[in-house]
Amino acid sequence: MITPGGRFRVVTVVETLLVFLVAPLAVYLLLWALTYLPGGRKRQGVRYKPGQPWDHEPVWYEPQPANAPTHAAGHGDTQAVGSSLYGEPAAIGSGDGHGPGAGVATAHGATAAGSPDHGSTIGSHVIASDSSPAPAAVGPLGGARGTW
Amino acid sequence: MTRVLQAEAHDTGTVDTAPNRADEGYDTIFSYRELARLDEALTMASRETGLRFTLWIGDLGPKTRIRAEELHARGGDPANSVLLAVSPGQRVIEVVTGPASARRLPDRACALAVLSMTNSFASGDLVGGIVNGLRQLSDQAGHPRSARTH
Question: What's the pLDDT score for residue B33?
Fold first, then answer.
């Protein structure tokens, strides 16, 4: 350092340590704390790790209908707004799993969650209970299977 | 002295103000961002191909294939639909195509998509695997002739 007199001043050991050791350490610790200490951004949802059990309700997601209405809800629809802004037929949320359409209730919105017992959730979709009529065979099915 | 009002809790909701589905708790498997990704992937895959892609995430029981085919048949328009049934607990994915959709999506294409999905699943990325698998399947299926406008 240069003193007002233009002469170099002797830097003490303490100052050296402060500048070259304590200051970087402080920066490092601050970043570490911001990164790893809890209480930061909370993660929604579950973190899936292969091999852990999956004890969630089954969910069935389906695409948004192609000719979906653009208004929020029409006459006879609930005002429930899921991820989508499409109205939903009110009978679906009635909870017995027997909405319109013979056991398979069709609701809009891929952000669906439902259970066989009460199929009332956001944007939702009722999973048909096991008592629904046996579906007619449509012919040979294809597909693939995989494990991991 | 003022007294605290001893008010009992009544459900005062009317038809319009009653709690609706958005107010109820639901199983938050995915975050909203992940749900939005799934939503877009399913919707865009279905719109591009004209097939109906649906996604089941849950247990498939001991006979996974039979259960998946049951679900496929129950899901509305089974001939034209494609079901992705993922059972993370059992580490199984089943892709079921109907008779009409199997013509656009041969088993070999499904197996390829399943392979890429299981790759992601094994590293713990459920949503990413599903989104990529849907993209792969819809690319393979292509546009239907009726929907081709250009």
Answer: 86
Domain presence at residue A22: yes
Question: Cβ separation of A145 and B65 shorter than 8 Å?
Answer: yes
Chain B contact for A54 (CB, 8 A cutoff): yes
Q: In terms of domains, do A64 and A121 share one?
A: yes
Distance CA A84, CA B70 (A): 28
Contact yes or no for A145 and B93 at CB 8 A: yes
* Residue in chain A nearest B65 by alpha carbon: A145
Domain, as residue range, for A123: 57-131
Which domain CATH number covers B127?
Answer: 3.10.310.50
Q: Please, which residues bridge with residue B97 across strands?
A: A142, B82
Residue B59: give the domain boundaries.
32-141
| Residue A90 shares a structural domain with residue A127 | yes
| Predicted confidence (pLDDT) per residue in B62-85, tens digit | 999 999 999 999 888 888 999 999
Cα–Cα nearest to B70, from A127, A94, A93, A91: A127
- Alpha-carbon distances, residue A33 vs A30, A39, A121 (angstroms): 5, 11, 38
- Name the minimum distance, in Å, from the CA of A34 to any CA of chain B: 22
pLDDT, tens digit, 9 for 90 and up, residues B31-60: 888 889 999 999 999 999 989 999 999 999
Q: Which residues of A touch B96 (CB under 8 A)?
A: 141-143
| ipTM reported for the complex, 2 dp | 0.77
